[in-house]
């Protein structure tokens, strides 16, 4: 039996994501096909990415001109951490130890 084209397209799109191989993409596609509320929630979340941009100051992700870190007046503006990726920035933020600004 051949899968419906819409399911194949979804599986192909999912398999392009890091850490998701063809089998996982197929399982996720089938799950979403039978759980419409979850599929709709995922659709809304993906559509929300359209509002996401890049901070004009530091290069972090932002839902406007400035990211929350650059907007935060309590940050130590005398220290800037230069990071390679936004993932690196998030890792430093999770540590709770750095209170300066960033440049991605």
Describe the structure.
Keywords: Coiled coil, DNA damage, DNA recombination, DNA repair, Metal-binding, Zinc, Zinc-finger. One of its GO terms (biological process) is DNA repair. This is Recombination protein RecR. Residues 78-104 form the Toprim domain. The chain has helices at 5-15, 22-34, 36-48, 68-71, 86-95; strands at 53-54, 61-62, 76-82, 100-103. The chain is elongated, with a radius of gyration of 19 Å. Helices cover 49% and strands 14% of the residues. It is built from 5 helices and 4 strands, in the order αααββαβαβ. The protein folds into 2 domains: 5-50, Helicase, Ruva Protein, domain 3 (Orthogonal Bundle), CATH 1.10.8; 53-102, no CATH class. The termini are far apart. The protein has 104 residues and is an alpha+beta fold.
């Amino acid at each position: 039996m051949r899968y419906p084209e819409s399911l194949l397209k979804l599986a192909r799109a999912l398999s392009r994501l890091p850490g998701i191989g063809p089998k996982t993409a197929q399982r996720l596609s089938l799950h979403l096909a039978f759980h419409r509320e979850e599929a709709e929630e995922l659709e809304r979340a993906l559509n929300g990415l359209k509002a996401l941009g890049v901070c004009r100051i530091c290069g972090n992700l932002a839902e406007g001109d400035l990211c929350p870190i650059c907007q935060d007046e309590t940050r130590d503006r005398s220290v800037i951490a230069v990071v390679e990726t936004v993932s690196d920035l998030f890792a430093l933020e999770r540590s709770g130890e750095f209170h300066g600004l960033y440049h991605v």
